[in-house]
Amino acid sequence: MGQLSNKRRPIIIANWKLNGTTAFVSDLLDGITEQWFGVHQAEVVVCPAFIHLAQAVNEHLAHSNVALGAQDCSQFEEGAYTGDVSAEMLHDIGCQYVIVGHSERRRFYSESDAQVAKKFDLVHQSMMTPILCVGETQEQREAGKTLDVIKRQVGAALDYCGVEKLARSVVAYEPLWAVGTGVTATPDQAQEVHAFIRELLGPVGQAVRIVYGGSVKANNAETLFAEPDIDGALVGGAALKADDFIEICKAAEL
Ligand SMILES: O=C[C@H](O)COP(=O)(O)O
């Protein structure tokens, strides 16, 4: 992949969102682990729904080289917060990664930058790696505000947690107009924002993996990954079929 691949290990993350039964998840995990064994340049992470995490660990991932992530966590550590799942619970069950600030959480649950920053910090406190999602709406892009939005979203985590924690994180750039729409950002559009995020992080930015998300498919992954600041992908729809997802993972190693 891109010219900086010697410095940053590519990472491909499957976000299965609100999908799957135990049988579906079982088949999908079998399909992925059977095709992704041995040593690989790219790191592969799967993020099932909370209720399928234990199944993933106990029945499929324990002896695989596929890592486990969660799609979200509570902004609270413990106590009377009905329905929540804490970062510590996720660590305890075997997660290594947690997505925070996904645009669907920001949009459908009104999560603020401040709440996302708290979650980001709790994931670190629980010895896992947060995947911080940022991205602009179509209206914001058309108004020329893309970089302002990204600066505000990354800045909230930076201000709350400090640059050292950002250095040990993954950032996912997901323009909302590309999420689940079939419209992918062009490699140039994505590269511009990725380079901007890296610049925002200062010297540590060179070590941070910044992935792109938004209608990534097997047929567009390679050109995106060829960009110097795109270190992998956060994949939704195309991660629901093992063969399609594995094709994207392979493209990260070209
Ligand atoms: O978390 C994944 C993203 O929201 C991308 O979803 P998508 O690949 O279905 O567009």
Distance between the termini: 5 Å
Number of domains as seen in the coordinates: 1
What's the CATH architecture? Alpha-Beta Barrel
List SSEs in N-to-C order.
EHEHEHEHHEHHHEHEHEH
**What is the CATH topology classification name?**
TIM Barrel
User: How would a textbook summarize the main sheet?
Assistant: 8 strands, parallel, barrel
- Average of pLDDT: 95
Radius of gyration: 17 Å
Number of strands: 8
Helix segment count? Answer: 11
**What is the structural class?**
alpha/beta
Which percent band covers the strand fraction?
5-15%
CATH top level? Answer: Alpha Beta
Strand order of the largest sheet: 1-2-3-4-5-6-7-8
Characterise the protein shown here.
The protein is of the alpha/beta class and about 250 residues long. The protein has one domain (about 10-250): Aldolase class I (TIM Barrel), CATH 3.20.20.70. Helices cover about 40% and strands about 15% of the residues. It is built from 11 helices and 8 strands. The protein has helices spanning about 20-35, 55-60, 85-95, 105-110, 115-125, 140, 145-160, 165, 185-200, 220-225, 240-250; strands at about 10-15, 45, 65-70, 95-100, 130-135, 170-175, 210-215, 230-235. An 8-stranded parallel barrel has the order 1-2-3-4-5-6-7-8, surrounded by 6 helices. α1 packs parallel to α11 (about 240-250), α7 (about 145-160) packs parallel to α9 and α10 (about 220-225) runs parallel beside α11 (about 240-250). The protein is globular and about 45 Å long. The termini are close together. Mean pLDDT is about 95; it is low at about 1-5. The structure holds glyceraldehyde-3-phosphate. Glyceraldehyde-3-phosphate binds near residues 15, 180, 215, 235 and 237.
